[in-house]
Specification:
Length: 257
């Protein structure tokens, strides 16, 4: 049996510590929860905690990736600058989502900028610690491959949506996705569900692969139908079931054309 993992780490680097709520948010992540108890313990023990203000740069596109990390509170916005100089929002990561393992292990560059969206806490694992964890826990490598596979399935699903669904269905599906990831827990039936993520309409359009003008038209249509309300600090969903039905109806109509 291997000896317990012991690394010479300056404990002062681990300040501030995770709050109980932040630790619970990481542990709720489906992938992280699937790891062995000893591996989860070592990751939480050896990870470094950093707190960011809204808009702070976490990782810079093109710079060598040094850390594997997860959001413990707040959110992370990933944005890429194209060769033409256009900045495009790619996705948002909520608490419990781990990113960057491929870039770190191949010592490659960050493929996008990462910024804090709202006050955000990160738990990060430096490259040397990540490699030590892989040696100490034989199951960790397989777990990272599973994480990569899940991410690829998500990417392929988004590509399929862009290719096969009309914008209205893609918008409804993305709002439901964001609600699931960033919305409140335990909302009473009949109450509005706030997505909890303030998005500019051009960013929402970039996430959907559509224009800002067309997305604005669809948002206004959903407001008139009583499905959502667009507020200054985010979108409220009033009828989850009708949004889900809208996705199905639009997909069926598109398949018949």
């Amino acid at each position: 049996m291997n000896a317990p993992l012991r690394l010479c780490i300056d404990r002062s680097l681990q300040r501030p510590l995770l709050t109980q709520q932040e630790r619970e948010a990481i542990n709720r992540g489906r992938w992280f929860a699937s790891l062995s108890a000893s591996l989860r313990h070592d990751i939480l023990r050896l990870g470094q905690v950093t707190r960011y203000a809204h808009g702070d740069l976490i990782a810079e596109q093109g710079q060598t990736a040094r850390e594997w990390f997860t959001c413990a509170s707040g959110a992370i916005r990933f944005r890429r600058t194209t060769p033409e100089g256009k900045m495009v929002t790619l996705t948002y990561a909520e608490p419990g989502i781990w990113v960057g393992e491929a870039e770190v292990l191949q010592r490659g560059p960050n493929t996008s900028d990462a910024h804090a969206h709202g006050p955000t806490t990160l738990l990060s694992v430096p490259e040397d610690t990540l490699r030590a964890l892989l040696l100490e826990h034989p199951s960790f490598g397989t777990a990272l491959l599973t994480l990569q596979a899940r991410r690829m399935r998500l990417i392929y699903g988004l590509m399929e949506d862009i290719a096969t669904l009309p914008l209205r269905a893609r918008l409804a599906k993305r709002l439901l996705h964001l609600l699931h990831r960033f919305g409140p827990r335990g909302v009473e039936p009949g109450e509005p569900h706030s997505i909890g993520l303030s998005l500019a309409q051009d960013e929402l359009a970039q996430l959907l692969g559509g224009s800002r003008q067309r997305v604005n038209v669809e948002l206004k249509w959903m407001e008139r139908e009583g499905l959502i309300s667009v507020r200054p600090r985010g979108i409220e969903v009033h009828d989850v079931q009708r949004l889900e039905a809208l996705v199905v109806q639009c997909a069926a109509a598109e398949a018949q054309d």
